[in-house]
Amino acid sequence: MVHKLNQCGTAVAQVYRQGLGEFFLDDLWRYEAAWVVPTPAVQAQLVAALNESPARIVRLHTAPYSIVSYAWGQKYQQSNQWAVETLAAAMEPATVDSRAQAQAWMQFKGYVPTTLKLGPLTRLGGRVGSANIAFDDHPNDKRFSDRIETVTVDSVFAWLPRAGLSAAPVTLKLQ
């Protein structure tokens, strides 16, 4: 498994390669897992990208991290955003060589970010209380109208099947 995590209490992230056991032994928020199975064509492209070289896996990685980074920005990058931008680079290796190009591919494929309604006091509290929350990458017209557009699991799971890139999401909950 390859994934991006911010280092606890910081606004900096790295990309890690771990086994599923190590991933699930982390400090879980709840005992629930969800996944999508990519189509065979997407699987082939992802395997090629992930096996090619470590440099290719992290070429679109940006270390500055905000859990609510702007879906179409490049200042920060959160985990879901890195995953779908890396997917874009894997699907179009000859043409996607930057985060802007990856985001353009996502838009072309119909990706729609989640819009969170966060008022000014919530934004201020989040920014003051957590190093990994920043809103300064969001366009002023959206931010000051309380519309924070970010990449969430929900928006990715809705998009992948709609774009023909995967089967429907599957969820496993342990009680």
Structural notes for this entry:
Helix content is 40%, strand content 15%. It has 175 residues and is of the alpha+beta class. The chain has one domain.
Summarize the structure.
The chain is built from eight helices and six strands. With 175 residues, the chain is of the alpha+beta class. 25% of the residues are buried.
Q: What gap, in angstroms, lies between the N and C termini?
A: 25 Å
Stretches where pLDDT is under 50 for at least 5 consecutive residues are none
What is the percent of helical residues? 40-55%
**Percent strand:** 5-15%
Number of domains: 1
Q: Major sheet: size, sense and barrel closure?
A: 2 strands, antiparallel
Mean pLDDT: 92
Query: From the alpha-carbon coordinates, what is the Rg to the nearest angstrom?
Result: 16 Å
Structural class: alpha+beta
Q: Care to count the β-strands?
A: 6
Shape: globular
Strands side by side in the biggest sheet:
1-2
Q: How would you spell out the order of helices and strands?
A: EEHEHHHHEHHEHE
Number of helices: 8
Keywords:
alpha+beta, globular, 6 strands, two-stranded antiparallel sheet, two-stranded antiparallel ribbon, single chain, 175 residues, 15% strand
